[in-house]
Amino acid sequence: MRKYIVKRLIISIFILFFVMLIIYSLLRSLPTSYIEQMAREKSMQPGSKSFEEWMEQLQVMYGMDKGIIPGFFSWLGKAVRGQFGDSWKWTVPVLDKFKSTVGVSFVMGLITLIFEVIIAIPLGVIAATKQYSRTDYTITVVALAGISLPTFFFASLLKWVFCVKLGWFDLGGLIGRNYEFLSPMGQFMDKAAHLFLPLVTLIVISIGGLMRYTRTNMLEVLNADFIRTARAKGLSEKKVIYHHAFRNTLIPLVTIVGGSLPSLFAGALITETLYSIPGIGFVSYQSMTSGDIPFSMFYLSFMAVLTLVGNLISDVLYAVVDPRVRIS
Length: 328
Known about the structure:
Elements: H1 2-28, H2 34-43, H3 51-61, H4 68-79, H5 94-129, H6 134-148, H7 151-165, H8 184-222, H9 225-232, H10 237-258, H11 261-266, H12 269-274, H13 280-289, H14 293-321
Helix pairs in contact: 1-14, 2-3, 5-6, 5-8, 5-14, 6-8, 7-8, 8-10, 10-14
């Protein structure tokens, strides 16, 4: 196991290097640029230098006068020392901006993942064990609705019902107008109330896929020969389903759960935008569209690292959930 993990880590380092090189090249090739925007604004001021002069000066200032390959290695040399520079758009250190926005996205992602697993997997198992029954049809309809509903439509519907018509929640934001005057428990409840509708949106949208995936894999296992053998031996249906069948269903589910690690820090762009939540998803989107290379490079490289770690965790967990899997 130790040799396997070390080997995978070495391979992951090479993969990460080329991924970061591709990301840097794409960001340098974006049609929009924060430097161009800044140079254009400064050149329009009375008595200012021309746009070309400002561009040349700002490119030298931000190290953009180098080619893509020299610029990448210059960025990489600082990144391995933990120096990611200042964000061009937010005018603060990249790490400070990331820390101030990733917390709320992580909480939302973690709660969504927990409820997704708690709700989707049991319902998928129930639907498979009661195939073609009313319960199966009901769960299937709910799953298809969750898969088919656009995030912006479902979020807008929730806001219209619970914010506009009933007035139970604020239309958006993370805190209320009286947040500073509340007690610590009151501040916690205020944030919880503002995150309730965004969490409902994320949970409903996400459970459909995992529910259908669980049902499909469970049906495949239930039709296997060893399940018929277990039933022929006189084992109870409960033991057949939850001891023999469900354990074999866990293998593909481990892939889904392990691959969910990056989503905990990725943020939910559409949901955060619709509910005015200052999370990492919305901040990273604004940084990319404005050509903020320092912040975008850190965020995308961070997500690449999490993706590689998530894949490694999934491979290791295979041997945990299934004794037949051996890593060599």
